[in-house]
Structures are given as C-alpha cells and as structure tokens.
Amino acid sequence: MENLEALQKKIRDRIAELNFQQPPKNLYQPINYTVGLGGKRLRPALCLLACDMFSNASDRALEPAIGIEIFHNFTLLHDDIMDEAPIRRGKETVHKKWNANTAILSGDTMMALSYEYIMKAPENIRFEVFEIFNQTAIEVCEGQQYDMDFESSHDVTLDQYIEMIRLKTAVLLAGSLKIGALIGGSDGSSADILYKFGEQIGIAFQLKDDLLDAYSDADKFGKATGGDIVTNKKTFLYLKALTIAGQEDRKQLLSLYQSDKMDPNEKVMLVKTIFDKYDIQQHTENEIDRYYKLALMSLESLDIEEHRKTELLRFANQLKRREY
Amino acid sequence: MENLEALQKKIRDRIAELNFQQPPKNLYQPINYTVGLGGKRLRPALCLLACDMFSNASDRALEPAIGIEIFHNFTLLHDDIMDEAPIRRGKETVHKKWNANTAILSGDTMMALSYEYIMKAPENIRFEVFEIFNQTAIEVCEGQQYDMDFESSHDVTLDQYIEMIRLKTAVLLAGSLKIGALIGGSDGSSADILYKFGEQIGIAFQLKDDLLDAYSDADKFGKATGGDIVTNKKTFLYLKALTIAGQEDRKQLLSLYQSDKMDPNEKVMLVKTIFDKYDIQQHTENEIDRYYKLALMSLESLDIEEHRKTELLRFANQLKRREY
Questions:
Q1: What pLDDT, on the 0 to 100 scale, is given for residue B223?
Q2: Chain B residues inside the 8 Å CB shell of A109
Q3: How many CB pairs under 8 A join A and B?
C-alpha cells in the first residue's frame, strides 16, 4: 500500500506534465493557470488510494483521477465567477486576472477535458466509471444551486443544509473513492461502501470547515476568522443556533445576518457571543463526530484485509484533527 | 428513407418529452426553458438522417441526437452571456430572464446532461461516439474563443476566419453526421466522408449567414439588415473587402469599423457602398459556391446507393437557396 502523501505526489507530478500548449492561447493559458494553482489534490489521491486498496496498482486509476481533479478545478473556476471571489489559493482568480467570459469558456473546456481523462479508464469498467462521474458532476451543480438559493432563503433547515453540502462537497470525494475502487477491481458493494464513507467523511470535512471559519487560529487557517459570519453565510453553526436559541437571541441573530454595513469585528463578536451562549461550537463538534463515526463504521464494514484500510483511516483521522 | 422534416419532427417530439422536474427548480427550470426555445433541430435531425442512410433505423441514434441538441443549446446559452445578448429565438435569454449565475450553472448542468444522452449510444460504438462528441465539444469552445479574440484583433486573415467558423459552427454539424453514420453501422471511411461533407456545408451555411446579414430582405431574415456591420463584426464580407479594396477605401472601412457612435443606417450605407464597389456580394457567393461544390463532391464520393443520398442532397440545396 502506498501512503496518501505518496499518491498526492504522484498526482502533482502527473499534473505538472499537463501543459496545454495548443492554440488558442487565450483559452488554454487560463486552464494551465487554474490546474497549476495547487491545492491538496485530495480527490484524485483518494481515487488512487481506493484503487490501490483493491489492486496494489494505483496507476491504473491515474488518468481518471486527473479527470476528477480537472473537474474539481473547473467547478472552483465557475464558482469563483458566481461568488465574485477575487482570490483562490492566494492568487488572482481567472475572472479577475482575465475576465468573466474567459473564465466561463475556459471552464467549459475544462469540463470537456475532464471527461476526456475520465474515459481513459480501463475499457472493461469505463462506462460504469462514466456513469458515476456524470451523476456526480450533475449533483455538484445541484449543490451549488442550493448554496446560491440559500443566500436569499430565510427558512433553510439543518437537513437541507446537510443535503446541500453533501451534493456540493461530499459526493465528489465519494465518487472519487468509488471510481478508484471499481478500477482497482472491487465488487460493487465494496465500492458502494467506500462511496458512503466518502459522503460521510465529506460532510464531516465541510462541517469542520464551517467550524474553523468561526473558531480557529486565523494564522493557521489562512483566512480571517469569521469570514462566513461577515458575509452572512448560513452555515451549520448559524442554522443550529437559530434552531436552539431563545426568541430574543434568535431575533438578534436574524437581524445581525441582514446587516451588511456593520463593523465586521463587532458583528463577528456579537454573533459569536450568541453562538457561545448556546454551545454551538460543541454542537458542531458533536455533529462532526457523528459523521466521523458513521464513516468509521462504513470502513469497518468493508470486507477487505484490515491493513488495507489503515491509510484511509489515517486520512479520516487527519481530517478530524485538522486545525486549519 | 425518412425525410429531414419527419426527422426534425421526431426530434421535436422527443424533446417535448424531456421535462426536468427534479429539484432544485432554479437549476432545471432554465434548462427546460432553454431546451424548449425551439429552433430547427437541424443537428440532431442530421444525426438521425445519417443513421437512417446506413440502417433504415434512425431511432437507434435518437438519444445521442438529443445529447447533441442539448449540447448545442448549452453553447448558445453560454455564448449569450458572453455576448450579452438579450434575445434568443424571440425570447429573453436566460441571463436576462434569470441572471448570469443561473445561466452559467444551468449551462454547466446541460453540458453534463448532454454527455448522459450521448452515452446512450449502442454499446458497441459508444466509446467512438464519445470521442467524436468530446473532440467536437472542445473544438466548439476553441471556435468561440477565436471569435472573441477576433473582436479585438486587427489582423484577422480570411483563412483564420474560415478556421474560426469551421470550429464554431461546422464541426458540430459534421460530428452530428459522423455520429449518426457510425451508429447506423457505416464503416469508418464513409463516416469520415460525411464528416467532411458536414464541415463544408457548415462553412457554406455560416458564409451564407454573413451574406444574408448584409444583403437580404429584412422581413424574411428576421433581423435588421446590417447588424454585423453596426456591431463591427469581422465577417467574411468585411475581411474580403479589406483584402481587395484600394488603399483609400481600405482606410475608410477600417475607420468605419472603429466607430460606435455613428448613425447605424448611415454606417451600413457607407460600408455597403464600399462592399458594392468591390463586388463583395459576388465574391461571397463564389466562396459559398466553392464550399457547396466541395460538399457535393464529398457526397458523390460516398460509396452508398444513390437514392440514399437524395435527402442530404436536398438539405444542401435548401441551405444554398435559403434567403433567410
């Protein structure tokens, strides 16, 4: 078994070789820029890991894993236009560095390129891989739509929120694992268990992200604490607080989340005072723990030698413990 | 052999059945709206026609043909954002009726949906169909990029222009025919000949569009004559005129194409005076004729019973003769 770090390096090395030099350069330069921005390359590495678990031959999944990473980067590129985000991974976003039209069209091309790489899966499993990937791609779009819908909705439930992050974040982790497993030769039910694991750990991952945004060491996390609060983002913390807070605090929270003009530091302080009053940090940690444990149970139920699960277990633990 | 009109109706009927009712509705409503806007359904009908030519069983290609039409509508949707077009087929564009974010994301989802339908091709030929479609999708994006690049370029050549319209318009017609032929059971070289025919007729089609924009009965054509001139679009007519006009006229033409403030009617009149002086209408008709004849030669070289070519020949003649 290769460890996750080695597999991440394998992905980085393969991506370094991708260099779209064909014309038109105004189309392919932003693609090279986007794919080269870095990141943890977690999804494709998990794809390789799952393949390795069943085959000791992670390379079999290398090209489809690259397709997954290109797709992931495409979604970030288009999301950044929609969110008007100026910075991604410490660098200017494509729609800022070039323009929105370039970002739209380069993204479209990346989507087609991602299918090209996905379809390099071994022939015997190619169509199944395609079906998982395509379903995942559609669900990621649905998740992004819910995320945008929630911005202007005033009655988002916790269940709806979990469903949104499942679609927007978790299914791509899940699909990466399932695709890798199938390419590695796993049977369908093992692949489905890994999919479930990916969903559960993906939801835990996003909840942890919500938590760290409000409660973390800003230097480690790499962005200012409370960014979600300042932008009125309806995270798990906020929705949980609305569910359990008393009427007065609930009212104040709703009113704070309708203000755009307030001093950011004061706003974060006032919101977190309410959060703290209702132990929101603890509630969120409990929910993370719940999904984390579900993920571990999924992994336990997987019918494979125990030592083949070690690396995925270590990955789950890292995610849980991360402080940034 | 079914005739083209019958095949267009078959496509319209199948599209009428598509009705994405699943949530989130803010994602799928714009998709239903876009796919339902109408249009001639030419690409999918040609796909069925090519399939019919080799199999007498056009239905075999029905689902992939729908994938082609969804893809075509997706490109129009994203192009309309980039061009800031307010109207498409007489109705508000999605980014106007909803907003740009909705248009981006619904388009992305349509792209994934188009792959879903493409991959319903019969299993024995599925991967080949995918490869043609995916290559075509990438080339259409490249064509759109060149089209945008040309807006700010001052040294576009006629060859570059033809290559742009080949990518942006012709390859999807060509790919539709090739995919249909292969699903119908044609050999590779026959499919390649139909691809070539599609490219040639597609270029002729776009050149005819350029011509009709400047020289047509506005009532029949459905838009004001000279729209391309008013918006400084570097069409075949303009580029040809630059190539053959005397120095003074060339200068005047360049200067006219840099003015945005001029009275539109006066601008169209002045540009067309130069066009007329150099017989641009005739030159363009000659070029259309050249591509039309190349297409006919391709069709002649196709090794299939002559009566199986009749419908495609009739289609080519219709395109050539159209006055709107």
A1: 59
A2: 138, 141-142
A3: 98
